[in-house]
Amino acid sequence: FVMPAWYDIRSADASSWNRTDNAAMQDGAGIRASQQMIDAFIEREIARGIAPQNIFLAGFSQGGAIALQCGLRRPAGLGGILALSTYLPLADSLQGEASEAGSRTPLFMAHGRQDPVVPYALGTHSLKLLQEAGCKVDWYEYDMPHSVCMEEIDDISDWLSQRMTAPA
Fold it and tell me: By C-alpha distance, which of 56, 71, 47, 6 is closest to 161?
């Protein structure tokens, strides 16, 4: 079936996902446009008085890809990034674009071992690339397809509880 997204993830070759020629296939312009919208939203929240460490980006599938794209490139760190059943987009540009604060942002990443939509191999390849870029990733995997399970929800809850601060 055709992917209900801006491009077909399943047509990607996980072993060459970080090659520059994959950027066109990934719709780099669309990814960067989404990044600009999310960045503008974050800046509005900061202007309203929300501390960056109290902002968490989370996304599932291609939403997780956008969370990674935005969070790792922010000049000021965030409270955390949660990337579920996803992959690292535009991986070849990460080294040159990731901010020091973005690389230090806490990162929860989870994937189903039977995911037929975003292949498990693409998730683990993304994990490897993130670790090579100096990111500390809390990695979780589950016996599930392209979905969310109760064990994952519990892990997310625990992870967030350890990182969220009460308002002053």
Answer: 56
What's 146's domain CATH number? 3.40.50.1820
Q: Which domain holds residue 140?
A: 14-163
Mention every residue, 6+ apart, whose C-beta is less than 8 A from residue 3: 9, 10, 117
* E-assigned strand segments in the chain: 56-60, 80-84, 107-112, 137-142
In angstroms, the CA 147 to CA 142 distance is 10
Alpha-carbon distances, residue 45 vs 39, 41, 67 (angstroms): 10, 6, 16
Rounded CA separation 44/111 (Å): 31
Within-domain flag for 4: no
Q: What is the pLDDT of residues 83-119, one digit of tens each?
A: 999 999 998 888 888 888 889 999 999 999 999 999 9
Q: Answer yes or no: are the C-beta atoms of 84 and 12 closer than 8 Å.
A: no
Q: Which among 27, 39, 103, 146 is annotated as catalytic?
A: 146
Catalytic: 111?
Answer: no
pTM for the structure as a whole: 0.87
pLDDT band of 167, cuts 50, 70, 90: low
Q: Which of 34, 111, 115, 125 is catalytic?
A: 115
Domain count, the chain: 1
